Amino acid sequence: MSAESTIGIIMNGVSGRMGYRQHLVRSILAIREQGGVTLSDGRRVQLVPILVGRHEDKLRDIAARHGIADWTTDLDEALADPRWDVYADFLVTEARVPAITKAIAAGKAVYTEKPTAATFEEALELARLAKAAGVKNGVVHDKLYLPGLRKLKRLIDDGFFGRILSVRGEFGYWVFPGDGVPAQRPSWNYRAEDGGGIVLDMFPHWNYVLENLFGRVESVYAQTATHVPTRWDERGRPYAATADDAAYAIFGLAGGVVAEFNSSWDVRVNRDELLELQVDGTEGSAVAGLFGCKVQHRSATPRPTWNPDVPDQHDYAADWHEVPITQEFENGFKVQWEEFLRHVAEDAPNPYDFLAGARGVLLAEKGLESAATGARVDLPEVTV
Ligand SMILES: NC(=O)c1ccc[n+]([C@@H]2O[C@H](COP(=O)([O-])OP(=O)(O)OC[C@H]3O[C@@H](n4cnc5c(N)ncnc54)[C@H](O)[C@@H]3O)[C@@H](O)[C@H]2O)c1
User: Fold this and answer.
1) Tens digit of each residue's pLDDT (9 = 90 or more) over 119-157
2) How far away, in angstroms, is 240 Cα from ligand 1 center?
């Protein structure tokens, strides 16, 4: 942090979906707009971003649109400049490790999208390098900041569930193959050779959700599929989808909770939200989504009896009650950015580091191993 209380942030990959919308506009510019990050003693630290990317025209356009003075296509030059304290990475997964490795060598604090790498070995190496260099490091854990999951966390902390028995996660939606209606995700997501695949994309999220809410993931059994083998890219050209686009997994958690997650880009939504987690416990159950969270207490549980001869008139949906909103929820990416910047500025706690990121990549890797071998795979505890 420089003397005039600003933090300079190198933002690499701001032309991408996540880099532009969630990290630049909804987080860094929103924090800048509010006058910076407030530290524990009330001081404010303002942010100064520099945009980095491969295409001059895109950078110039974004910089002009948002009144940003600094941009460059030369990452090395930005890393060599002491004005910039933090390196932030929103690149395609495949490009991430070399860029972060350089940023660590340059002594920058590093904040990155997940997955931190495409393999566990590389992800762990990043954690090792960051520790050896003494640079602060953080990884996006955005799902933990969703209003629905924060309400769920409060229920857990309040002991609402009694003993938690199981978690069922349903995630997914129909991603158009791209012929006719354009695909709503980048084509690299569907090519294994470009770091794609729903396991590598989503299992890092499931790992931090599970370990922070229910317990460490100790084992995984997964079956994957490439249900749609041909898709059409951003230019309308057909390509072979080589990566998994659906995964059906069972995670064994420390303490005995069983978590079962379906992740798919090939399902049509018949749920309230694109992600839903049903948690069942001895005293009550909850269904949490991105925004909502509904509960059913033991005392209000109906007593269904199975009878295929009589149409069931019971309205099961009516047995659930929405958890009221009792606090304001800000954009989760922004909240986590502020926490990380406090970690940089005044050493505030930051549990979501490269080691947490490596655990997420390990779950993806072991999930793919399980899918390839058909066996349940145990996950070792990870240390640097
Ligand atoms: N936290 C979340 O909820 C979430 C959601 C989606 C994606 N992601 C992650 O964010 C990252 C970016 O995903 P996205 O959907 O924004 O992708 P995207 O394709 O929209 O953007 C990728 C960015 O990387 C740049 N890029 C592409 N190839 C490059 C290369 N070879 N070298 C340098 N730069 C390159 C592009 O110019 C672009 O700026 C991925 O790692 C993805 O896993 C996270």
Assistant:
1) 999 999 999 999 999 999 999 999 999 999 999 999 999
2) 20
CB 287 within 8 A of CB 293: yes
Out of 2-16, 91-105, 171-185, 195-209, pick the least confident.
2-16
Give the model's confidence band at 366: pLDDT under 50 very low, under 70 low, under 90 confident, else very high: very high
Judged by DSSP in three states, 288 sits in: strand
Question: Atom 34 of ligand 1 has which residue's CA nearest to it?
Answer: 91
Q: Which of 11, 12, 18 to mutate to test the pocket of ligand 1 (most atoms within 8 A of CB)?
A: 18
| Distance (Å, whole) CA 3 – CA 212 | 36
DSSP 334-371: HHHHHHHHHHHHH------SHHHHHHHHHHHHHHHHHH
Mutation probe of ligand 1 site: the residue of 57, 90, 275 with most atoms within 8 A of C-beta: 90
Confidence band, pLDDT 50/70/90 cuts, at residue 32 = very high
Is 214:259 a contact under the CB 8 Å cutoff? yes
Q: How far apart are CA 239 and CA 233, in angstroms?
A: 7
The residue type found at 255 is: G
Q: What is the mean pLDDT of the chain?
A: 97
**Which of these, 62, 81, 70, 85, lies nearest to 16 by C-alpha position?**
62
Which atom of ligand 1 has the smallest separation from the CA of 142? Answer: 1
Distance from chain centroid for Cα 135: 22
Single pTM value for the model: 0.97
**Separation between Cα atoms, residue 382 and residue 357, nearest integer Å:** 11
Q: What percent of the chain has pLDDT over 70?
A: 99
Mean pLDDT of 290-312: 96
* Maximum Cα interatomic distance, the chain, rounded to a whole number of Å: 77
Tokens representing 212? Answer: 């922070």
For ligand 1, the distance from its centroid to the CA atom of residue 93, given in whole angstroms, is 6
Q: Which protein residue's CA is at the shortest distance from atom 32 of ligand 1?
A: 95
Q: Is the peptide bond before 186 cis (omega within 30 degrees of 0)?
A: no
Q: What's the rounded Cα separation, in Å, for the pair 74 and 139?
A: 24
Ligand 1 centre from 276 Cα, in Å? 25
Sequence letter at residue 238: P
Ligand 1-lining residues (CB < 6 angstroms) = 13, 15-19, 53-54, 90-93, 95, 113-114, 140, 142, 186, 201
